Amino acid sequence: MSDTQKTAHLADLKPGKSYKVLKIVGETNIKRRIIEMGLNPGTEVEIIRKAPLGDPIEVKTRGFLVSLRYNEAHNIIVEKE
Amino acid sequence: MKEITLAFAGQPNSGKTTIFNEITGARQHVGNWPGVTVEYKDGYKTIGDTTYKLVDLPGLYSMSANSYEEIVSRDFLIKEKVDIIVNIIDSSVLDRSLFLTTQLTEIGLPMVLVFNMDDIVQKNQTEIDYKRISESMNIPYIVTQGAKTKSWDKFYEIINEVYDNKEYYIPRHISFSGELETEITEMENSLKVKNPFQFTDKGNSTDTRHAHDIPGDIFVSKENNPIRLRWFIVRGFEGDKEAINMLQPNLISPKNLEAQIDIKRGHVTDVYGDSIDEIVTDDRYAFISGLINKFVSYSKTSNKVSITERIDNILLNKWLSIPFFAAIMYCAFYVAFNVGDFIAGYIDGWINGTDDFIGLVGYITESVPGALGELLGSGVVAGVGAVIVFLPYIACMFIVIAILEDSGYMARAAFVVDRAMHAFGLHGKSFVAMLLGFGCNIPAVMATRTMESRADRLITIFVIPLMSCSARLPIYTFFVAIFFEPKWRPLVLMSIYLIGILVAIIVGKICKGTMFDDKETPFVMEMPAYRWPTFKSTIIHTWDRTKQFIVRAGTIVAGCAILIWFISVYPSEDNSIVMMLGHWIEPIFKPIGLDWMAGVASIFGIGAKEVVVSALEVIAGAQGAGDAEAFIRSIYTPFQSYIFMMFCLMYWPCFATVITMKKEIGEWKYFLFSIIYPPLVAWVLCFIVWNIGKLFM
């Protein structure tokens, strides 16, 4: 992967912005599930909000809403800007 | 008379169940898939001399065989007789919906695409060329608008056409990139199939229906369905060992396909540096993107999500989400309990005659002579009646669940509380089920069906009996009224409920850590667009579940009621089997500070919890020459009564719940755990509290 300045874990980013998915890492089961829900590399994903207790987070992709736990969102590597 | 079997496949929230209900109406049957607790639904529709058998597969995002739902769906499509796969597509999220479609096309069974939610597509001003999308996969299609669809004539027309001309409608599958495709094709050509089957080219090249690349494909001729050989191989490459095992018996050579595929998988991974999963999903999405770019044009704004987002901005607002959640839950259950309570009061009055209605029990007992009258009245009617009394609660709760589920709020509720529940090894959706448990454990156990992960679901079922249901309340109020001053009563009551919740949390945490190897199951959950629940689907949902409950109450619970009645009057009422049993089990109750009467009452309570009180009154009445309450006050201390309340809270779910749990859990080992741990936990806790408490009393 390229420069760490340019990439980030989706879980660590603040709501309100769109990012491009670069790679999904982690365990096969979870990785597969994330990709099958439409969050495959190349997709635009916007963080909508965090749940009141900070976890899970709600994201928007391909025109629909998905919620992910912090651990799962951590597996999604996105491009910053 | 011919029967055409249609398998309905689609992603969750695609409107699949709505369409299924529209077509079959009330003529459907709900059950579980053999061995597992995934809901199974089929229904029939007859037009002229053709019967359409519709099978509603569980909602699936993909066919990767990760989950129980995916496995049962795969097995059904491959092993059972299926004529046509009807793939319901949410056209408003076309790209994600088509992902499943690309997997279904590989199977090689004829398909029909139902592009549903066209009303939303139109509202969003999206233009979709359905015809060209379908043609690219050689699948006929119809466009629908969920429950608003006016006519299904076209649907049957297409189904009949496909059924009569299957060879024209074998779907076209996608090709994967470079090396992987080469490996798959090579393997396809090298395998020797026992009874290969090919659709012959009829030579009618002017027929536009004909997909000319299909006849070359080899199909594995199974008893029921010809399945494309390629499907098994692709699945094998994706790591589905079960698919390879299904193919192996149909092969002359090689003898060890699994080993061969493992080598090839390694080779492909080496070439790409990516896992095969990634290559395969990338290629599927690449194909879909191609279709979208060519045949879909989106307007600038997407209306559907924006309304949902606007509602979410309020309901899921950082500060307001928890108050809203609490308010919605409170309203929902307030209505369910109170309406249920109102109707249950009438039924109870009618059965027991405590109101101005005819006391059915007394009437039957008196009018049918001898033991038979006793059996019918006190055994069957009273027993089943005890269960039927719950019916209004249960039905009302099912209505509430159906509305929460269909409106889209259930996913939000799970979102709001997931963090808190996750800490206890549970899921956001566990919360709603557990909350229901305070009304009645039965619908609570059934409500866990909406949970995707089996581990989460089983743990939730395990702890639901610890939620103090409304039938346990009479026990508490009985003792609290006898032994505690009015000012302490609410506190005592609340502490009992809290003990249940606390034990549930500990049990959940332990189960998660020990029984299910703590592997996190993905929580990735769609937040569906808000919709108004339709009257028809709410009613069908509620009726399905209530019907299952009635069937159980009518059979097994009646049997148990008869048994309990029998052992309580034979050989004679003051020296019955139950009493002997009570004395026999007294050594179990001694160490926790209770006596044989409590033991006997507990046994009765297994039939239905509120019976504990009436049983205790009967026994104590006989012992104490009439005044049962005075007698109970004289032999128990308040502390003992508290121990007994604790014991009643935990020791055993009622029979109807146990039976529901068996149905929903499926596997014997988990079911046995679910009924063996409660009495153990109850006893150990009561033992500790009693022995520590004794020191201070």
Write the layout of secondary structure elements.
The complex is a heterodimer of chains A (81) and B (697).
Chain A lengths: L6 E3 L8 E7 L3 H9 L7 E7 L6 E5 L2 E5 L1 H5 L1 E4 L2
Antiparallel strand pairs in A: 1-6, 2-3, 2-6, 3-4, 4-5
Chain B lengths: L1 E9 L5 H9 L3 E5 L6 E9 L2 E7 L11 H12 L4 E7 L3 H14 L3 E6 L1 H6 L3 E2 L1 H7 L4 E3 L9 H12 L13 H13 L1 E2 L2 E2 L21 E3 L4 E3 H9 L3 H7 L3 E3 L3 H16 L3 H20 E2 L5 H13 L5 H32 L7 H8 L2 H19 L2 H17 L1 H14 L5 H10 L3 H7 L6 H10 L9 H11 L5 H26 L10 E3 L7 H35 L7 H8 L1 H4 L6 H10 L5 H13 L4 H8 L2 H13 L4 H11 L2 H29 L1
Parallel strand pairs in B: 1-4, 1-5, 5-6, 6-8
Antiparallel strand pairs in B: 2-3, 3-4, 7-14, 9-13, 10-11, 11-12
Helix pairs in contact in B: 3-11, 7-8, 8-9, 13-15, 13-16, 14-15, 15-23, 16-23, 17-18, 18-19, 19-30, 20-22, 20-31, 21-29, 22-29, 23-30, 24-26, 26-27, 27-28, 29-31, 30-31
Summarize the structure in words.
The complex is a heterodimer of chains A (81) and B (697). Chain A is of the alpha+beta class and 81 residues long. Chain A has one domain (7-79): SH3 type barrels (Roll), CATH 2.30.30. Chain A contains 2 helices and 6 strands, in the order E-E-H-E-E-E-H-E. Chain A has helices at 28-36, 70-74; strands at 7-9, 18-24, 44-50, 57-61, 64-68, 76-79. In chain A, strands 1-6-2-3-4-5 form a 6-stranded antiparallel beta sheet. The two termini of chain A are 16 Å apart. The model of chain A has no long low-confidence stretch (mean pLDDT 86). With 697 residues, chain B is α/β, with parallel strands linked by helices. Among the domains of chain B are: 2-168, P-loop containing nucleotide triphosphate hydrolases (Rossmann fold, 3-Layer(aba) Sandwich); 178-297, Helix Hairpins (Orthogonal Bundle), CATH 1.10.287. Chain B is built from 31 helices and 15 strands. In chain B, the strands form 4 sheets. A 7-stranded mixed beta sheet of chain B has the order 2-3-4-1-5-6-8, with helices on both faces. A 3-stranded antiparallel beta sheet of chain B has the order 10-11-12. A two-stranded antiparallel ribbon of chain B has the order 7-14. In chain B, helix 13 packs antiparallel against helix 16 (391-407), helix 24 (577-584) packs across helix 26 (596-605) and helix 29 runs antiparallel to helix 31. The radius of gyration of chain B is 30 Å and the shape is elongated. The relative contact order of chain B is 0.07. The mean pLDDT of chain B is 83. The A-B interface holds A 28-38, 40-42, 48-56, 58, 60, 62-69, 71-72 and B 61-62, 64, 66, 92-93, 95-96, 99, 275, 277-278, 281-282, 285, 302, 304-305, 308-309, 312, 316, 318-319, 321-322, 411, 414-416, 418-420, 422, 519-520, 522-527, 529.
